[in-house]
């Protein structure tokens, strides 16, 4: 797998997933490690999507941590990518191509994890997330932008990060 095709944030998430798996004493990197890593390294995409999808984030984190604790621990041994996680990374690449993006970004990883048969995908579905509303939230976040650089996630939702959206405040009746 060529990590040069991944954005910086996606690469950070994959590296963090390795650290998380090692920290738990796991021999394989699973989608759950990758999702927890995205929580830890991404401050733009995942928080926006979970808020938009009205996911109970503290509960999600609690269930995810319990799931990770339930995986078997192995002393020593070499850390490897599980077959499921490998498929997820490949699927993220396919999703990126279908979206005409040049790099695999965090939102591609999240969508690929959701489409997998992993426990975290089921946890998200149990929280009411569907592929349709996840894709709609991603579209809203990206506002038609394509991923053409390794720092693409930093440009998502820039207005809401650095300024007040007066239109939104007026619509919400919060503008004097």
TrEMBL record:
Superkingdom field: Bacteria
Pfam families assigned to the protein according to its UniProt record, in alphabetical order: Clp_N (PF02861)
Keywords of this entry: ATP-binding, Nucleotide-binding, Repeat
GO cellular component: cytoplasm
Keyword field contains Nucleotide-binding: yes
Tagged with keyword Membrane: no
InterPro entries: Clp_N_dom_sf, Clp_R_N, ClpA_ClpB
GO MF, one example: ATP binding
An annotated GO BP: cellular response to heat
Clp R domain: residues covered: 3-144
SUPFAM superfamilies: Double Clp-N motif
Name of protein: Type VI secretion system ATPase TssH
Natural source organism: Sinomicrobium weinanense
């Amino acid at each position: 797998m060529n990590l040069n095709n991944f954005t910086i944030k996606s690469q950070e998430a994959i590296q963090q997933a390795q650290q998380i798996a090692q920290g738990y004493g796991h021999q394989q990197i699973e989608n759950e490690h990758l999702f927890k890593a995205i929580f830890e390294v991404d401050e733009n995409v995942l928080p926006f999507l979970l808020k938009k999808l009205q996911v109970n984030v503290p509960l999600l984190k609690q269930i995810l941590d319990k799931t990770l604790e339930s995986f078997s621990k192995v002393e020593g041994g070499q850390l490897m990518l599980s077959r499921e996680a490998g498929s997820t990374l490949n699927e993220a690449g396919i999703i990126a191509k279908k979206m005409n993006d040049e790099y695999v970004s965090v939102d591609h990883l999240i969508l690929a994890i959701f489409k997998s048969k992993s426990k975290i995908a089921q946890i998200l579905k149990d929280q009411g997330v569907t592929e349709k509303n996840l894709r709609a939230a991603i579209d809203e976040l990206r506002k038609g932008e394509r991923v053409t650089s390794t720092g693409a996630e930093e440009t998502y939702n820039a207005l809401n990060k650095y300024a007040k959206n007066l239109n939104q405040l007026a619509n919400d009746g919060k503008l004097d």
